[in-house]
Amino acid sequence: MPSHPETASRPQKNDPDHVEALARGLSVLKAFSNQDRPLSVSDVAELVGITRTAARRFILTLEYLGYLSFDASGYSLRPAVLEVGDAYLLSHKLLPVAHPHLASLVQEVGETASLTVLHQGRVIYIDRVHADRVLTVNIIIGTSLPAYATATGRVLLSGLADEVLDEYLESLVPESLTDNTAIDREEIRNRITAARQNGWSLADQELTEGLRSIAVPVRNADGEIIAAVNVSAHATRVSAESLRGTVLPRLQSAAAGIAGGLQNDLAAGG
User: Which residues of 130-169 are buried (b: 16+ CB within 10 A; e: fewer)?
Assistant: First the structure.
């Protein structure tokens, strides 16, 4: 089984190709994205694990570049950071192919559908089409969630090579998010293995109480899992049996349509 692309040829900390200053600067920027409040220099130093002097230098540089601004409450992100995310979304060939299939899927099942990828053990939502229904969790494009506690995450993790999956599980510190969240590493491994064998995964109120989700992989021409598509629904409205029996076939059809569209796009030189 192929390893996930995110693990290939990454420079390590002691590698001459590793630029420590750039890594630290991005860590500072990420610290802001993980908080819902302005941060002080001391806050950043503690969150990133660097000195206050180093934190101040990185913050002032990011402020100069237009990524941060300062007021009486502290430093906050500026809209310029959206340019980085927009560049990814606009350049990713998967998105224009996948979006019409997500929209059709939502029309068919009447529930919200999403497209996700895996990054550093977390699920990143890169597209989402909302149904006209209320969900118990507020997920938007760019939202990052722990992979072990989500159906889409387990599908993506199932595409990792065994040794890469072992590394992920060894470093994992699972948190109990609901009464249904698996926090035992072997149980998490079993759920990922089941996703690999079945070709789909269902999460029943593991991330948030009242939320059920089912996911399937999107594969490239080489059979590698490059993304996952999922449908989420409120547990009081849709049973697990309905997700498996009614939603799953339509979800698989959408994923197949996305994979086929990518191959056609590649063949056409798009």
Answer: ebeeebeeebeeebbbbbbbbbbbbbbbbbbeeebbeebb
CA dihedral 74, 80, 85, 89 (to 10 degrees): 160
pLDDT digits (tens, 9 = 90+) for 98-140: 999 999 999 999 999 999 999 888 999 989 998 886 665 678 8
Q: pTM (2 decimals)? A: 0.74
Cβ atoms of 156 and 228 closer than 8 Å: yes
Structural domains for the chain: 5-79 (1.10.10.10), 92-267 (3.30.450.40)
Q: For 256, left (φ over 0), alpha (ψ -120 to 50), or beta? A: alpha
> DSSP code of 1?
-
DSSP 14: T
Angle between helix axes 41-48 and 52-64 (nearest 10 degrees) is 110
Torsion of CA 220, 162, 251, 97, to 10 degrees: -30
Which candidate, 10, 197, 25, 207, places its Cα nearest to that of 116? 207
